[in-house]
Amino acid sequence: MEKRVLVIGGSGHIGSYLVPRLVAAGYHVLVYTRGNTKPYPQHPLWRRVEIITGDREKEEEQGALGERIRSLKLYALIDIVAFEEKSARYLVEALAHSETHLLMCTTAWVYGKTRTIPTYEDAPRFPENDYARKKVAIEDVLFDATQRGVVRSTIIRPTHITGPGKTFVTPFGDHDPKPVQQILNGEEIILLDGGFSTLHHVHPSDVAELFFQALEKPTHSIGEAFNCGAPYAMTFFGLGEFLAHHFGRTFRFTNMSLEEYTQRYGYPEEAAMHVRQGCAVSMEKAKELLRFVPRYTPEAAVLEATYDLIERGALRLATRC
After folding, report:
1. Mean of pLDDT over the chain
2. pLDDT above 80 (res 321)
3. Residues 190, 172: contact at Cβ < 8 Å?
4. Environment class of residue 198 by beta-carbon count within 10 Å: exposed (0-12), middle (13-18) or buried (19+)?
5. Terminal Cα-to-Cα distance of the chain (whole angstroms)
6. What is the pLDDT of residues 63-110, one digit of tens each?
């Protein structure tokens, strides 16, 4: 019997790896997208994917998306791009009392400030920003609906997604590649608060694989939330030192508190969130329940992203004299 899987947001960084993985496993894959982005990287199996173009917000308001979802008779629906509680409620209503497996992408940001290292899935959630608060609300909708037997859902919480096609969280703490370029040039960078907070990169192919394993093992995944990070986290200092040594540079840095940096240069909002919040999650639950072990170390994910930025001209590998 054909197993139809709808992926909402399937042409982004996670979907670019997940969709071919599903096709290769024999699923009939449909991708719902606005049509504004193309998969990165490309894969020949995308030729076997059914593309559905639409505007999610408009179709939710009109009720058309729910009708479309019900008509597809889905084995599973994977939502990578839900950012509002109302979208989660809409999917619960559309899939109510069906056998469809709903898999939702939220974020490790739901934990807020790191309190234990590593952070397990049952840790309290204290979201620090609007994005994370909305993800917590989405999770609560799904937890409640699953506990009441209305839907069959699984939640995946990725950490800092790092791979080809996008910038990544740098040793400074934001996505601006300038500090990486300075490291490549052998120049000094600023490390906020000494660089000893934690960050946890994850390659999008590993996020995709965890979604796949959760789909393949519904008995163990339904009703659960799973962290998704590399096998271990790093410090901002460790990341900077690794990049410098990999490219044959001396790691030069100056330590500056967030308060001093703000006084001198202005408040670095994204970097401040990363540095003062930290991120270091446990991957034990995914290993125990789903037999999933991430393939990429954080160093490998960062290097792949760095070389991609060099190839695309966003970074320049300086010639040493």
Report:
1. 95
2. no
3. yes
4. buried
5. 64
6. 888 899 999 999 999 999 999 999 999 999 999 999 999 999 999 999
State the Cα–Cα distance between residues 48 and 182, nearest whole angstrom: 43
Phi, psi of 319 (to 5 degrees): -85, 130
The pLDDT tens digits for 189-236 are: 999 999 999 999 999 999 999 999 999 999 999 999 999 999 999 999
How far is residue 43's CA from residue 58's CA, in Å, rounded to a whole number?
30
d(CA 150, CA 76): 15
H or E stretch including 103?
Answer: strand 101-105
* Tens-digit pLDDT profile for residues 164-200: 999 999 999 999 999 999 999 999 999 999 999 999 9
> Do residues 2 and 30 touch, judged by C-beta distance below 8 A?
no
pTM of the predicted structure, to 2 decimals: 0.95
Q: What is the CA radius of gyration of the chain?
A: 20
Number of CB atoms found within 10 A of residue 95's CB: 22
- What DSSP string runs through 218-256? HHHHTT-EEEE--SS-EEHHHHHHHHHHHTT----EEEE
Q: Which domains does the chain have, with CATH numbers?
A: 4-161+202-228 (3.40.50.720)
Report the helix count and the strand count for the chain, using DSSP H and E: 13, 13
pLDDT digits 0-9 by tens, 23-73: 999 999 999 988 777 776 678 898 899 999 888 889 888 888 889 999 999
Q: Could you give the CA distance from residue 210 to residue 161 in angstroms, rounded to a whole number?
A: 13
3-state SS record for 10-56: CCCCCHHHHHHHHHHCCCEEEEEECCCCCCCCCCHHHHHCEEEECCH
Query: What's the distance, CA 178 to chain centroid?
Result: 22
Rounded CA-CA distance 104/136 in Å is 12
Rounded Cα–Cα distance for residues 195 and 225 (Å): 30
User: Which residue carries 């339904």 as its tokens?
Assistant: 222
CB burial class (10 A; 0-12, 13-18, 19+) of residue 38?
exposed
